[in-house]
Amino acid sequence: MTAFARITLLSLVLGLSACAVHRPPPAPTGPTIPPSGPSTQPSTRPSGPVTPPPKPLPTKSPTFAPPPGAASHWDGKMQVYVLDDQPDTFYRQRTYYRWSNGWSRSISPNGPWEDTDVQGVPPGLSKQYAQ
To answer: How confident is the model at residue 106 (pLDDT cuts 50, 70, 90)?
Structure first.
């Protein structure tokens, strides 16, 4: 054998022998200390039915874009955005809708407002504010 092969073989044997000689540390033999805190004993009474928490309502529509530059949230029941700063004002598809003893619509949240009937508003709004 060449000197290089002998050194390589010797290095492998010594390296692997270190793995065979190493022992794991001994397990602790002292008394075990119970965890502090309240006891978690099972109850003898069955608990009532578990109700899941309500689903959070989405703040954005998956289909319609929110109104530009206005604070709003999506109302899934009415299928429109509700403007947070203007009461009874809604937005959907580049049109604002306002309820004030009747429906009106505009392309701006500040007007000018054009009167319309129930057919001129999204169906969810007409159901919510049925006359």
So the answer is: very high
Contact predicate 92/106, CB 8 Å? no
Which own/partner contact pairs does 89-97 have at CB distance under 8 Å and 24+ positions apart?
Answer: 90/122, 90/125, 91/66, 91/67, 92/64, 92/122, 93/64, 96/67, 97/121, 97/122, 97/125
Whether residue 37 is predicted with pLDDT greater than 70 in this model: the reply is no
Domain of 118?
72-122
Residues in Cβ contact with 119 at an 8 Å cutoff, skipping those fewer than 6 apart = 126
Q: Is 82 exposed, middle or buried (0-12, 13-18, 19+ CB in 10 A)?
A: middle
pTM over 0.85: no
The answer to whether position 42 is within a domain reads no
Mean pLDDT of 39-54: 66
Beta strands in the chain (DSSP E): 72-75, 80-83, 89-92, 95-99, 103-106, 114-116
104, part of any domain: yes
Total Cβ atoms within 10 A of residue 113: 15
